[in-house]
Design goal:
Length: about 350
């Protein structure tokens, strides 16, 4: 079955710039349209139509970045008009193609699905050191002692700190999973700590030791610049939103840079952020579970959509788990990692979700 799904994926990828129908795909595969649709969704957790939509839009960002005419890009990816393409683009990325073309803002990567012969989903690893060295050549001022690097998670923090990847600057990890459990309006105050500790089924003392103490530099030192190292998946982006909210609450006045990256490639997209509306977004999204009213970076806009969808009882991940309960937990988790990379959950979050489903 995995080989058949890979054949479907390969055929779709070869025809993303062509007009085609499900009937043509099913004729190529030698199965009915219903069978192709059902099996594709069963194995990948996403519909064929949705996969095509997301892949075309993501690939189109490369054309926009190369300053191709928007109408030409629209026609290349089988849109009937520039307006139809722009509507679809804004629905997925939160901004229109012209805004993206002018600002080259980070978006979530939507890569081709690839299955190897053992039925496992392929990933790649690229050295972080090489990417950071390239960044140093471009932004050497971010490597001095008046800069704080906040990194998403303990593992990344230890790698950066132990290897002094950012030179003389300081480091701090954010060891949270803000995409799960309740939170409070004020970030890092007593109520926040009690609420988050309770949600994680931890003692307040353990939570403080794990989450608050490692952020001591953020709370007690002054920096001219803060660099935020957070991945593009939903898990990382909700953590990022929390840190940005705190920076606004605390009245931070220095520069803020986001170094956004895709976990398996670690290709950094650096953007200077302007504080001013993240606290309101934090309250709208993480506290009240509503869509944000402010315009955001596409990568955060996409992540918020995923976060709000994951709050639904019938979200795509839950549906996939329900259909594959016969799998061993370890195999099911590996599939979830591969099929839903933009969610960004870790083992603990998936195990809890599996146990609830």
């Amino acid at each position: 079955m995995n080989e058949q799904i890979q054949l479907m994926i390969d055929w779709i990828e070869d025809n993303l710039k062509n007009q085609f129908s499900l009937d043509e795909l099913s004729n190529y595969m030698g199965y009915s349209p219903y069978y192709c649709s059902f099996k594709f969704h069963q194995v990948t957790g996403i519909s064929i139509r949705r996969y095509i939509l997301l892949r075309r839009l993501y690939l189109s960002t490369e054309d926009l970045a190369n300053n191709r005419k928007i109408i030409d890009v629209a026609f290349d990816y089988d849109y009937s008009s520039q307006e139809a393409y722009s509507r679809a683009f804004k629905t997925v990325f939160g901004i229109n193609p012209r805004e993206y073309q002018l600002n080259k803002l980070p978006v979530q990567s939507i890569v081709k699905l690839t299955i190897n012969k053992d039925g496992e989903w392929c990933r790649m690893n690229v050295s972080r050191k090489i990417e950071v060295e390239q960044l140093q050549n471009e932004k050497s001022e971010l490597f001095d002692k008046y800069v704080l690097n906040i990194l998403n998670g303990q593992v990344m923090y230890e790698e950066f700190k132990d290897n002094r990847l950012m030179g003389d600057s300081d480091y701090a990890p954010f060891n949270e999973a803000m995409c799960v459990n309740a939170t409070t309006k004020q970030v890092f105050d007593k109520e926040f700590i009690n609420t988050r500790a309770s949600g994680h089924h931890e003692s307040v003392e353990n939570y403080i030791k794990k989450v608050i103490v490692p952020l001591d530099n953020l709370f007690n030192k002054e920096y001219k610049c803060i660099v935020l190292w957070f991945g593009e998946d939903m898990f990382c982006q909700m953590n990022l939103l929390t840190i940005l909210s705190y920076l606004e609450q605390s009245g931070y006045e220095g520069k803020v840079f986001l170094n956004c990256f895709k976990e398996d490639e670690f290709k950094v997209n650096q953007t200077e952020l302007k504080l001013g509306h993240y606290y309101s977004v934090y309250k709208e999204v993480l506290v009240n579970h509503n869509k944000p009213s402010n315009e955001l970076l596409p990568v955060m806009y996409q992540a918020i959509d995923i976060y709000l969808d994951m709050l639904k009882e019938d979200n795509a991940v839950v549906k996939y788990i329900s259909k594959n309960k016969d799998l061993a937990t370890s195999e099911l988790i590996n599939r979830l990692f591969a099929l839903f990379p933009t969610v960004g959950y870790g083992d603990l979050q998936y195990i809890e979700l599996i146990n609830k489903t």
